[in-house]
C-alpha cells in the first residue's frame, strides 16, 4: 500500500480509470474492485447486485448495480469476459467496499476474453501515483471530497 494524500492505494494493480475499478490480473483472469477514491465519493454502500457466475459481459456494459448514500447506478465492466466468481460476502455486506476496497471488498473475478483491452489499463507505480494525485486534486476542486478537519476547527 502507498499513501497518497489521505488515501491508501495499491500501485501493484492496474486501473480502469474511466470505470473507477482496480484489476488484479493473473494471466487472463482478473479480480476486480472499486478504487478507494470512487468509493470515498459515493458514500457508504447499502446495496449491491451483481450478475451471476457464467454471465458474459462486454466492456462498458453493466454487470450489476450499486446503491450508496450519494450514488445509485450501474457497474460498468472494465473488460470483456465471463464472470467466474462473485464475492458473496460483499453482497451480504456492501460496506466492505468502503472499509476494505482492496481486500474483502472485491466484487467479481472474470476471465478476460479480449486481452488487447489490457492495453487501455493504467499500470505502474509512477503512473498510478501521478494519476491518483491528479484525480484527488480534480475531485477537491469540484467539491466531491470532504475537506479534512484541521486541529483549529476541531478545537472550536
| CATH level 4 superfamily | RNA polymerase II/Efflux pump adaptor protein, barrel-sandwich hybrid domain
Structure summary, number of beta strands = 11
CATH architecture title: Beta Barrel
Major sheet strand order = 3-4-5-11-10-7
Uncertain segments are 148-156
Q: Biggest β-sheet: count, sense, barrel?
A: 6 strands, antiparallel
Q: Span from first to last CA? A: 34 Å
CATH topology category name: OB fold (Dihydrolipoamide Acetyltransferase, E2P)
Helix content: 25-40%
Radius of gyration over alpha carbons? 16 Å
Please, what is the average pLDDT?
Answer: 90
**Strand-residue fraction?**
25-35%
Give the SSE string.
Answer: EEEEEHEEEEEHHEHH
Could you say which structural class the secondary elements and strand pairing correspond to?
alpha+beta
Number of separate structural domains: 1
Task: Walk me through this protein's architecture.
The protein has helices at 36-42, 88-92, 96-99, 125-142, 151-155; strands at residues 2-4, 7-9, 14-16, 21-26, 29-34, 45-50, 56-57, 62-68, 72-76, 81-86, 108-112. The chain is built from five helices and eleven strands. Residues 148-156 have low confidence and may be disordered. The protein starts with a strand and ends with a helix. The chain has one domain: OB fold (Dihydrolipoamide Acetyltransferase, E2P) (Beta Barrel), CATH 2.40.50.100. By secondary structure, the protein is α+β, with helices and mostly antiparallel strands. It is globular. Strand 4 (21-26) and strand 5 (29-34) form a beta hairpin.
